[in-house]
Fold each of these.
Amino acid sequence: MPGTYHGFWKMTTNDNFEDYLKALDVNIAVRKIATLVFCDKDINQEGDHFIIRTFSAFRSYTMEFDIGKEFEEDLKGIDDRKCMTTVTWNGDKLECEQKGEVEGRGWTHWIEGDELHVVSMFFYHIVYSRTNYRHHVYE
C-alpha cells in the first residue's frame, strides 16, 4: 500500500480555481468568495479507508470512502450535483473519477515531501491545482 496521507494540511497555493468553478456553472458571487478563501484538509486514513474533511471560512465538506468502492457523492454547496465516485490508487497517487451529469470530472492527490498536491479536472481540460503543506501529523 502507498504511503500515508494522514494529517492536517494547510493550503499554500490555489491556481485556476475561478475558471474551474466557472466551467462548473457556479454563480459569480460564489466564485469570487471561493477564490479568496484558503481551504485546509484534515485527512484521516486507516488503510484503504479515508475521511477527508475540507475546511474554509466559506464552507466545509466531508468525503468518506474506501479505495476501489463506488459511492454516491453529494456535491451540495460546491456545484449542487450528485455523482457516483470511485477513488483508486495509481502508484502512490489517489485518483478520483466522478460520474454523473458532468463528464470527465475528477481529481488526483499526491504527496511530495511535506506537500500535498491536488489537481482537479473538468471536461478533461479545465484544470486547477492546489498545494497544501503538512501542518500536523496524527499518530
Note: The helical segments are 17-23, 28-36.
Amino acid sequence: MFGHIILRDIPKEQVQLDLLVYEIAGGFRGFAMVPPGAHYVNVKKNDAMQAGFWCVVPEEGVVIRVFDHDTGTFKEDTPENVKTYTELALGGAMNKSLIPVLARSPVDAEAWTSLTRHLTLQAFPPALHDEQPMVPPAAAEGRDLGQWFEQSFKSRFEQAFLGTHKGNINAFLAEFEHAYLQMLLGNDEAAGKRWRHLLLAVFNAGEHAMRASPDVFPPLVDVIVTQLIYMPDEFFDAGAIGSQGQYMVEDLCDTGIVELAYKGDLLGTILADRKAPMQG
C-alpha cells in the first residue's frame, strides 16, 4: 500500500521530506512507509538546502534518485541501479537504512496528504498558468461599456476556473495546491505570485459566481482552510488575506445555499484564528 523513496550519494547532514526536516547520518538511504501521492525531497549540503525535487510515489512503488554533487541537484539513476535498489527496497533488505515515515511522523504525514489531496499521478506536475486581466476596449463608453461588462467581462475567478481549466474542479484545485507548496517549500516567486492571484480571485469571486458554480466552492474552501492552518506566520498577510477573505465568507453565507453557508462559517473561523495573534 505504501511506497519508498531511495536517495543515493546524498550529503549526510539533513534531508527534507515534505514538511519535515530530519537529521541524518552515514547509514541513511531514504524513506519507507511513504503514503502514495506527490512528495517533495531536498537535502542540505555545506549548511545550505539544495535544489529539491518533486516526485509521485505509486502504491507499493519505489522512487530512486541520485544526488549530483557538482550541480547540487538530483537526477535519475541508471536502469541497473533502479532495478537493484527497487528489489532491495521491496524485499525489506534496506529497512534498517530507511526512515519509516508513517511510523515516525504520522501527524505530519496526514497533514501533507491533506495539502496534496488533488495532486494526481495522471496530471503531475500541474502547470502554473497566467491569465491576463480583462480590460474594456479603449473607445468603449456609456452604453457600449455597460454592454461589454455585461456580455464579455470575466472576473479573475471565471478566467481561471471556467477559462483556463474549463470548469474542471480537480485541475483548478491541483494548480492551487501546487502553487502554494512551490511557494512554501521551494521559495518560488512565480508560484507565490500565482497562488496569491488565485487566492484573491476566489476571495472576490462574488455571490453570483458561487451560485453559478456551487460545486467548486466546498472543496475549494477545504483547500484554503488547510493551507491557512499550515501556513507559517511570515506568509500570512493579515491585510490582504484576512480582510479580503472576509468578502468570501460573507458571499458564501449570503448565497442561501446551506453547504456554502456552512463553508463560509468554517472559513470565517479559521481566518479569525489566524488574525487573532497578530491583533493581540
Note: DSSP finds eleven helices and ten strands in the chain.
